[in-house]
Amino acid sequence: MTAHPGTRDGIPARILAVVRRIPRGRVATYGQVARLAGLPQHARQVGYALHRLPDDTPVPWHRVINARGEISPRAVPDDGRLQHLLLADEGVHFGPGGRVPLSRYQWKPSRPGNR
DNA sequence: GCAATGACGCTCT
DNA sequence: CAGAGCGCCATTG
């Protein structure tokens, strides 16, 4: 496997654990998820981990957006559209420019989430 | 093992 | 407020 026997549990697993905690109707940024996972400098790796997620993943990857409150410009716009639809279905509305007011929809965990 | 890429973030202009 | 540049680190070729 790609993971080495000496490296922790694996960065992806850690990130997915946090993403899975995002409540419905709320969104979180890559940097926020990375920070909650204990990896403040791994914002990019968060997107990388979600990128290798299967279509039948139980992880609400669509609730993760960038710090601008927008869906990152992905290679296939079709997937971005799916994310937009899923968020809208959860009650998350997009403002002009396709941006979500994080001030209102950003997920605010009561505790660090760190065991 | 080295080089290039990437679902990002922050600062400066 | 918008756009461009630089930095950070893991994964892939």
Number of discrete helical segments: 5
Largest sheet entry: 2 strands, parallel
Gyration radius (Cα, Å) is 14 Å
Query: What's the overall average pLDDT, rounded?
Result: 89
Order of helices and strands: HEHHEHH
Portion in strands: under 5%
Terminus-to-terminus distance: 27 Å
Query: Percent helix among the residues?
Result: 25-40%
What is the 3D form?
globular
Number of strands: 2
Largest sheet strand order? 1-2
Low-confidence stretches: none
Name the structural class: mainly alpha
Report on the structure:
- This protein is mainly α.
- The chain is 37% helix and 3% strand.
- The chain has five helices and two strands, in the order H-E-H-H-E-H-H.
- The protein has helices at 11-19, 30-37, 43-51, 77-89, 102-105, and strands at residues 28-29, 64-65.
- It has a two-stranded parallel sheet with strand order 1-2.
- The two termini are 27 Å apart.
- The mean pLDDT is 89.
- The chain binds a DNA duplex (13 and 13 nucleotides) through residues 2, 11-12, 29-31, 34, 39, 41-52, 61, 64-68, 71-75, 79-80, 83.
Name its key features.
about 120 residues; mainly alpha; two-stranded parallel ribbon; globular; DNA-binding
Secondary-structure map with pairings?
Elements: H1 11-19, E1 28-29, H2 30-37, H3 43-51, E2 64-65, H4 77-89, H5 102-105
Parallel strand pairs: 1-2
Helix pairs in contact: 1-2, 1-3, 2-3
The structure holds a DNA duplex (13 and 13 nucleotides).
